[in-house]
Each structure stands twice: as C-alpha cells, then as structure tokens.
Specification:
With about 170 residues, this protein is mainly alpha-helical. It is built from one helix and no strands. It has one helix at about 1-165. The protein is rod-shaped. It starts with a helix and ends with a helix.
Length: about 170
Amino acid sequence: MLLLLLLLLLLLLLLLLLLLLLLLLLLLLLLLVLLLLLLLLLLLLLLLLLLLLLLLLLLLLLLLLLLLLLLHDFYYYYYYFFFYYYYYYYYYYYYYYYYYYYYYYYYYYYYYYYYYYYYFYYYYYYYYYYYYYYYYYYYYYYYYYDCYYYYYYYYYYYYYYYYYYYYN
C-alpha cells in the first residue's frame, strides 16, 4: 500500500508537473500571442505613421501646387500688366510722335503758308509799287510831256503870233 501511495504521489507529481508544464506552455503561448499582438500593434502604428506621413506629403504637394498656381497667376498678371504698360507706353509714344509730327507739319505748313503769303504780299506790294511808280512816272511823263507840249505849243503860238504881228 505504501507503494501504491507512492505511486499515486508520483503520479500526482507528474500530473502537477505536466500541469505546470502546460501552464508554462500556455503562458509562453500567451506571451507569444502578446508579443505578436504587440508586433501587430507596432506594425499598425508604423503603418499609421506612414499614412500620416503620406498625408502630410500630399498636403505639402497640394500646397506647393496651390502656390505654383498662385505664382503662375501672379506671373501671368504681372506679364499682362507689363505688356499693357508697354503697350500703353508705345501708344503714348506713338501718339506723341504723331502729335509732334502733326505739329511740325502744321508749323511747317503754316510757315510755308506764311512765307507764301508774305511772298505774295511782297510781290503784290512790289507789283503795286511798280505799277504805282509806273503810273506815277507815266503821269509825270504825260504831265511833263503835256506841259512841254503845251509850252511848246504856247511858245509856238506866241512865236507865230509875234511873227504875225510883227510882220503884218
């Protein structure tokens, strides 16, 4: 009986050992599962971080694109403004040049017209003067001639009268 008891005790010990071993195995398995869960959690966290990083990169890219669009618009407006300014300047210069040319032309025309008028006036004056002079001269000549003729005639008449009176 003692042997039986001993055997039973041994069996119990064995069972206990087996149970402890099983418990240890279970604990190890649980630890392994926990480790795996931790690893999975870490992997998930890493994935989440990567996703966040990707999202941040996408946001940065979007911001850059927006900035580029704004800059492009600004550049376009600036270019347009510059072009408009250049066009305005060119138009102003052209207008000024045209105005200057017109003024020059008008001045030249006016000067020419004035000169022509002056020349015409001078010519007319000269002609008038010449005509007046000629008329005066003619008048004078005519008068002189008339006077002379009259004088001559008078003299002749006087002479004739004198002669007639004297000899008759």
